[in-house]
Design goal:
about 40% strand; globular; mainly beta; about 0% helix; 4 strands; about 70 residues
């Protein structure tokens, strides 16, 4: 796991994050990330914190989107 990816303990419900969907290759640079608000945090996994967005998409967090 990349050291710059946030852990489940660093995330909170409602935060806006960039995730890689579960059925995508998390190591691929060509994988299109999805941005959304965290609905549920499932815990840490080797590919990053596993979350479900409020939109229903499930995946691994790549990064937290900074507040604008």
């Amino acid at each position: 796991m990349s050291t710059d990816r946030p852990t489940a303990d660093e995330l909170r419900q409602g935060m806006t994050v960039e995730i890689v969907q579960d059925d995508a290759d998390p190591q691929s640079e060509d994988t299109e990330p999805i941005i959304g608000e965290i609905g549920t945090i499932h815990g840490d996994e080797p590919d990053g914190a596993h979350v479900k967005l409020k939109s229903g998409v499930v995946g691994h967090v790549r990064s937290v989107v900074p507040d604008e």
